Amino acid sequence: MKIIDTHCDALLKLQLAKRGMFQEGAALDYTTSKHLNTNLHNLQTGRVMGQFFAIFINPDVPSDEKWQHALEQIDLFYTEILGKNPKMKHIKSWADFDRLQDGEIAAVLTLEGADAFGNDLVKLRHLYRLGVLSIGLTWNNANLCADGAGEPRGGGLTLLGKEVVKLNNENHVFTDVSHLPIKGFWDVMETAKYPIASHSNARSLCDHVRNLNDEQVKAMFANNGNIHVVFNPPFIDESEKASLADLIKHIDHLCSLGGVKQIGFGSDFDGISTFVTDLEDSSKYQNLINELLKHYSEDQVKGFAYQNFLRNRPGL
Fold first, then answer.
1. Which positions make up the signal peptide (predicted)?
2. Using one digit for the tens of pLDDT, what is the confidence trace for 18-68?
3. Alpha helices in 33-139 (DSSP H)
């Protein structure tokens, strides 16, 4: 069964390798590197037909270097992922999904945290032109747009942050709520036409700040937003090792809140260091599909795997 995965951090790993900062200077080949959970071979084996690649800037990077770091990761997306792998097809508009040929894999650029452009909306517009189709205002720390989920004060969006959401709407770009605190989430819901939680689970099952409580979940579903479950065990059951059954409990709960047609997958592969058993990289995706088919109809599982996302894309 085909898969769409709305979050991975392969670009950061590729950048660290290029800078000689990855595991004692190891080089990474996107096609087959064992250090990349989402390498091309794994995507093909797991039948992934769409992979989202996040641009993520480490909070330790000085402010005046963040834009350059973002451009480096975008360049690696174009040269190492697209340029060397003809089967990877850049999705620059949502309609491009409908033009994929058999065997091709959609590659989507996203931004995890507005730190990359600061308060410079010209830079943001450049990101749109380069093909960024989903923007999370924050990672876990605060920036000029909003507080992140890890900020103790839990503030909402700034005026700049609200302006970014409006620009996302105008450009048919997702606003990603996965790393926002509760107040920031509700600020986004007031304005966003295209909300998404690219990699979050149910907080009522795992009380982690990165998960969504039931009221947030209901609001997402009421506003045509998809929630893509994340495979990081601390967000599943607060452990370092979760099972497929533990992950499926989150899908069950989201379905119970009315989301059977608005659930997807957002693995967080290449950004996590602990894994669900039998779901350690993209090549193992069909293990999850086979387990889901024991509990849900084939049409429902196809929805989770890729059809819900395609049906709820912006602009459709």
1. none
2. 998 888 667 799 999 999 999 999 999 999 999 999 999 999 999 999 999
3. 40-45, 66-76, 121-130
Distance between CA atoms of residues 138 and 263, nearest Å: 22
Instruction: Using the structure block, give the residue that is written with the tokens 């709960």.
Output: 253
The domain locations on the chain are 3-311
> What secondary structure letter does DSSP report for 143?
-
Rounded Cα–Cα distance for residues 58 and 74 (Å) = 15
- Which tokens hold the place of 232? 């990081």
What b/e sequence results for 1-14 when a residue is b if at least 16 CB atoms lie within 10 Å of its CB, and e otherwise? bbbbbbbbbbbbbb
Quote the CA–CA distance of 286 and 173 in Å, as a whole number. 29
Residue 197 bridge partners (DSSP): 227
In the block, tokens 């090549």 appear at 283
Pairing of strands 263-265, 105-112: unpaired
Token pair listed for 214: 């039931």
The CATH fold of domain 3-311: TIM Barrel (3.20.20)
Structure tokens at 165: 């959401």
Q: Which two tokens stand for residue 30?
A: 């996107």
266 in Cβ contact with 237 (< 8 Å):
no
Q: What are the tens digits of pLDDT across the range 74-112? A: 999 999 999 999 999 999 999 999 999 999 999 999 999
pTM assigned to the model: 0.97
What does the block give as tokens for 172? 């048919």
Rounded CA separation 248/223 (Å): 23
**Which residue, 245, 236, 305, 229, is CA-closest to 274?**
236
DSSP string, 151-219: -TT---B-HHHHHHHHHHHHTT-EEE-TT--HHHHHHHHHH-SSEEESS--BTTTS--TTSB-HHHHHH
